[in-house]
Fold DUF6265 family protein.
Amino acid sequence: MKKTNYSMVLTGLIMLCSYSAYAQSQIKKAEWLTGTWENKTSRGNLYEEWKKAGKHELAGKSYMLKEKDTIVFETLRLVAEGNGLFYIPTVKNQNDGKPVKFALKTLSDTQLVFENPQHDFPQLITYTKIKPDSLVAEISGTRNGQLRKQTFPMKKVK
């Protein structure tokens, strides 16, 4: 009986180590997103800022600078948990202030795609690295029966 308990513990430890390595590799592959990104618009400058927040997480925020005012739109988390990577925004004045989870659909050295088919809009969130100092963020999906897409070309400023 003790052999069985030891083998169960050993199996659990192996699974835990495998998960940890897998989660770290997913976050590592997404680290090109870290930094401060800017999209200049006629309404003000839109920023997205990402930082490493641990072995399995990146934390971020999206905000706009208009003159001397900072308007925060959302807080962001990119979290490796269980067997997946999740993009989790919390948007001010939406979803009762609760976070929404988007599951990883595509992960490469130059692209991150997250999906939540049950969300009203967007259902897809995509980040595509163009160069080390530029990316395109995109939200897309269906709203009121119409296919929609918004694109945000961004330059790295930090």
